[in-house]
Amino acid sequence: MYSDVSFSRVKQFPPLMWVLLLGSFFTRGSYFMVWPFLAVILYEKFALSATQVGLVLSNAAIISVFTSFIGSSLSDRIGRKTLMYLTGVLYIISFSLLAHVDSVKGYVVVMTLCAIATSLWRPLTAATIGDIIDDPQTRELAMQSLYFMVNAGCAVGPMAGVWLGLTGQQSSFYITAVAFALLLIMLHWGFRQQRLVRKIAADTTSDSAVNLRMTFKVLLADRLLQCLILANILCMFIYAQTDSSLIQYLTRAKAPQLLALISGIIFTNACVIITSQFVLLKLLASYPLTRRIQIGLLLLLLSQLWLALNPIELFWGWIGAIVVLSLGETILFPTMNVHIDRLAPDHLRGAYFGAASTYDFGFALAPLGGGIILDHWGGPALFTTAALLTLIVIYLYRILDRLPRPDFAHLAATKSDSES
Q1: 205 lies in a domain?
Q2: More exposed terminus of the chain, fewer Cβ within 10 Å: N or C?
Q3: Which SUPFAM superfamilies match (predicted)?
Q4: Count of domains observed in the chain
Q5: CATH number at residue 129
Q6: For residue 358, is it within any domain?
Q7: CA–CA dist 388, 380 (Å, integer)
Q8: pLDDT attached to residue 143
Q9: How many Å apart are CA 372 and CA 374, to the nearest integer?
């Protein structure tokens, strides 16, 4: 099915969708105005090693992987609206506390709360879009638009922070708290306009439990899915190095114009995505999914080699490498979701997307793994390792079609028997 990018589709967005889009822009903008500089704060305030900073960040991220999956199921039981309000309150509390903590233990606890809030918010937003938009093509465009607005916020936030002189200051975490307080007010208006067209029945608890069991059954039975999950965990691990490890490397190597460079990297990443996303969507629409993924992986490999070889003082060299990486990200990330959607049988769609949430382990382990490599072998070794891992991902994708898959009809019958 081809993607339909048109204003007629955009006009079909309900009011709540526009609230989610604008809210994503402002909250992610304020989030990235301060969060990427957290590694700098931990290093300068507590003199933590790269491994210790990575451990702090990974601890929060690993916990968030589990809460993301659990939160998605919980929203079916208590309702999307209620859990979104609770998550927004958790955001406000955690970021307000982050502006005050003055110990490593305090940072660990509060950053974990922040990570939990973030991991809950993303699937809740996606699930709400599914609740309020029925047409598949309009829903796909809504998802693409949300990805666009998130990256637009990522682009504007860091640069606005530099211009306002807020980056690197602990008190600036209040900005994100205020942004979410405003979003909750907007959400209240949006839900009143929407009257949430779909409510999940209370008897879905047993179905959620079945889906959880089915997730593990599919993981064990589908060799293709196992290989795909491993490939994408590695892929996420590689990409996540630019979120924490690259910043740590530049900080410790005393790169010139550090704050401007960090903001420039984040801005470039988001700017490339928002300017190329819909262009690439149209250009590659006729390509098979595997071909699109191969193009994205080759760009990822090139970016890692560039980062490994770039001199520390070459400002625009870092920016150039991020441009290449961002083009690969723009192709790969949306295609991963489409790939899972096409692989999943209708009666196992929930189980497949539940299994796909394990991709986030790559993000979770990246700060710790990257920090260890930085401490022992340095930045060039880190990105050379990432390039080698990219070659492994390319190989795993090449052998996907040769791997056996289970008898889905039998699995469906087993599920029916368990429910009867």
Answers
A1: no
A2: C
A3: MFS general substrate transporter (SSF103473)
A4: 2
A5: 1.20.1250.20
A6: yes
A7: 12
A8: 78
A9: 5
Buried b (16+ CB within 10 A) or exposed e, 262-282: bbbbbbbbbbbbbebbbebbe
pTM over 0.90: no
Structural domain for 124, as ranges: 1-200
Within 8 A by CB and 6+ apart from 365, the residues are 58, 61, 62, 237
Looking at residue 233, its pLDDT comes to: 92
Give CA–CA dist 83/30, Å, rounded: 22
Distance CA 32, CA 166 (A): 12
CB 375 within 8 A of CB 253: no
Residue at which a domain ends, from 180, 200, 220: 200
* Residue count (the chain): 420
Vertex 58, ends 379 and 213: CA angle to 5°?
130
Instruction: Give how far Cα 291 sits from Cα of 286, 287, 329, 386, Å.
Output: 10, 6, 15, 21
Mean pLDDT by 10-residue block, N- to C-terminus, for the chain (420 residues)? 67 88 79 68 77 75 71 65 88 86 84 80 76 76 80 73 61 80 89 61 42 62 87 92 84 86 84 86 80 92 95 93 94 78 64 70 84 89 95 93 76 56
Q: What is the pLDDT of residue 384?
A: 95
Mapping DSSP onto H, E and C, the string for the chain reads CCCCCCHHHHCCCCHHHHHHHHHHHHHHHHHHHHHHHHHHHHHHHHCCCHHHHHHHHHHHHHHHHHHHHHHHHHHHHHCHHHHHHHHHHHHHHHHHHHCCCCCHHHHHHHHHHHHHHHHHHHHHHHHHHHHHCCCHHHHHHHHHHHHHHHHHHHHHHHHHHHHHCCCCCHHHHHHHHHHHHHHHHHHHHHHHHHCCCCCCCHHHHHHHHHHHHHHHHHHHHCHHHHHHHHHHHHHHHHHHCCCCHHHHHHHHCCCCCHHHHHHHHHHHHHHHHHHHHHHHHHHCCCCCHHHHHHHHHHHHHHHHHHHHHCCCCCHHHHHHHHHHHHHHHHHHHHHHHHHHHHHCCHHHHHHHHHHHHHHHHHHHHHHHHHHHHHHHHCHHHHHHHHHHHHHHHHHHHHCHHHCCCCCHHHHHHHHHHHHC
Using alpha carbons, list the distances in angstroms from residue 211 to 47, 194, 206: 45, 29, 9
| Nearest C-alpha neighbor of 133 from the set 175, 194, 65, 177 | 194
CA dihedral 203, 209, 210, 211 (to 10 degrees): 100
